[in-house]
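Dear H.,

Thanks for agreeing to be a second pair of eyes. The structure we're designing against is below in token form, covering all 184 positions.
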């Protein structure tokens, strides 16, 4: 195992003005864990200090990789482990394209646009103690984004009630797929 590169040096290996890099084709050596963490609210930290440069956060998000339940930053020459408290992305906005069928287009804090569909599904976890919903959207490569509360409220406003087998559910559609936002 080699010593991990300092995160600043990773900037030299990845361009952010291109399509996402082909991480699935890269098989670098695991170089160990680095003291980097993505908090539950989507902020990125290195050695305890918040990374405030949006360009760095965007770059890191582009080389983020998930294997099992672990997260890594991956380049052609190295792979380093990082900590993710919940999920790595934050979904900050949504648009509904009024077409047939309607399409929901989400945007992450790092500027990715994702259309909800069979591959990019919505799900809502409900805390069994508080009943509080935690909505998520599949972003890419098995990694999800937490849908911010204001975006969830917008989805709830667009949702329709579906009653199946006596159970009332709030459902929203995109690309012909239907996603359950909650039950009564």
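And this is the sequence the design step returned. I haven't edited it by hand at all.
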């Amino acid at each position: 195992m080699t010593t991990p590169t300092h995160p600043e040096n990773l900037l030299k290996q990845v361009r952010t003005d291109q399509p996402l890099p082909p991480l699935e084709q890269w098989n670098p050596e695991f170089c160990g864990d680095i003291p980097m963490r993505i908090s539950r609210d989507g902020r990125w930290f290195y050695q305890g200090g918040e990374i405030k440069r949006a360009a760095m956060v965007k770059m890191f998000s582009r080389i983020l990789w998930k294997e099992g339940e672990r997260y890594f930053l991956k380049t052609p020459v190295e792979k380093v482990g990082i900590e993710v408290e919940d999920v790595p992305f934050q979904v900050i906005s949504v648009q509904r394209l009024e077409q047939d069928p309607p399409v929901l287009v989400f945007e992450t804090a790092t500027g990715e646009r994702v259309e909800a569909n069979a591959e990019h599904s919505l799900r809502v976890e409900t805390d069994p103690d508080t009943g509080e919903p935690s909505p998520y959207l599949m972003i890419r490569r098995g990694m999800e984004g937490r849908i911010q509360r204001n975006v969830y409220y917008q989805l709830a406003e667009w949702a329709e009630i579906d009653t199946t087998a006596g159970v009332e559910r709030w459902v929203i559609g995109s690309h012909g797929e239907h996603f359950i936002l909650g039950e009564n």
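Two observations from my side: The chain has two domains: 7-84, 89-183. The first helix runs from residue 7 to 10.

Warmly,
E.
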